[in-house]
Fold each of these.
Amino acid sequence: MTAFPTVEKVQYEGPDSDNPLAFRWYNPEEIVEGKTMKEHLRFTVCYWHTFRGSGADPFGMGTMQRPWDDGTDSVENACNRARVAFEFFEKLDAPFYAFHDRDVAPEGSSLSHTNEIFDSVAAVLKEEQERSGVKLLWGTANMFTHPRFMHGAATTCNVDVYTYAAAQVKKAMEVTHMLGGENYVFWGGREGYMNLYNTDMKRELDHLGQFFHMAVDYAKEIGFKGQFLIEPKPKEPTKHQYDSDAAACINFLRAYNLMDHFKLNIETNHATLAGHTMMHELDYAGMQGALGSIDANTGDMLLGWDTDQFPTDYYLTTQTMLCLLKYGLAPGGVNFDAKVRRESFEPIDLFHAHIGGMDAFAKGLKVAAAIRADNALGQIVEERYSSWNSELGKKIESGSVGFKELEALMLEKGDAQVQRSGRQELCENIVNRYLDKV
């Protein structure tokens, strides 16, 4: 019995195709910079939006038509949903998926009951992975939806909730390990504050650092060798989240001696909520050796919240791929943490959305690779910083001179030489030209 009877496996048909259920740019086996597109992009379907999203918003109830879902929290329904999900992954030709524990398995009457349910669904996930060849990119624990986490999980003011969160993460790590997950993600949806009048920030951050060290210790104990990832976000649902952007996360990791164990999972919509571009966040994480994975989506610039829309903008995907080709991505991937619009309520819309996103990233990959092959932007950067290749520049960068020596040189010279043009408009024109060429 198929959940998507009108859809065959999505194939690459090329840029001239008008078939809405075919790839125009994503050719999985095409070689780009020595690797296949499939290896570069590591596309991942997120379970939460794709199979648990209802289309509800603050002003209205859900709209999604999901005929395979009976609307209950039964184990049988959860297992059936998992089998439908794998049919979707296979027809989309997506090599990976990702989940929160509560996406795939509902809570029970107690923690032990919840763990039993999780084990039952995980057995189906393992069976489907072995049958289909689809892999788990990462697992994580949902510690933001249930009312027990109203004050946070690893930063809660309540020691019982902290203890529950530790137990929940332990189980999620075990299941992720059992399913061969290549990463484990922490998104601190409630790890922050609403009001500093009632908050001991130092104590909360200390508790968070201790929580992460316990996760590292337990990973060693069970033999989990996957990459730990933190996903930055500045606000929503809290007023201020401690993992607000890449810089804040890296500062936290250094302060608590965790840099050897964690990298970042960067999301486009979270970057813009922080007042940054995706390219900024990727470049900052990459230059710090902390770029691990990405959530591929976009926001609506006219709306001030996390809309999690599918990425279809070639400029955005080109900028993203310029960074990913520069720094690398594996063992992370391009995870579609994106949801179809409330008005796109039919199951077929799930295919249209993912195909569009996959094509946009494949196009961005090709454009970025062409720009890099010609060093079209690199030569402008090299020219702009060329004065640093002088003897003086080398001395400064090596740390062999100080203020006294620099002052003496400038007193003798009298003033700084004329600056070079930044060629910003030319850079933008170059990107446009390659978008037209590829």
Amino acid sequence: MSVFHKELYSDMILRIKCGSYQGRRIKAKPLLFYSVIIMIEKDFVHDNCIYFDKVSEEFYKKISATYGEAITPFFKPFYYLQFDGFWHLKGKRDNVKTNRPSPRFIRENIEYAFLDNALWDLLQEASIREHFKLIIESHHLKQ
């Protein structure tokens, strides 16, 4: 895979937008992406399909707990990560946008999430996964 793609996605990961609540930075989106990397390592994600299911939610919760973060409900980063440029939602119909996502909305309207194909390809390499995990840890998860 090209160095260009590695640098492009490194930059995109650094720029994941995190909201804040009561003065605390909400790290749910980088934590979700980190958990997807772990799921890929452990062979739980195939064919670039990340499902809104208990398995994905449990990985997300475990990673959140590992980093001592209050757990934002899983549906929020699953839905909102699509606005960071590399995470996409495959809808059951054309319109999968809403101002008020909910678990029910996602179950009824979204088949799965998927990554840019170039990012998916990069994540098949262990060294790249480690590189991206280090970026998330050092930029988003440091105390």
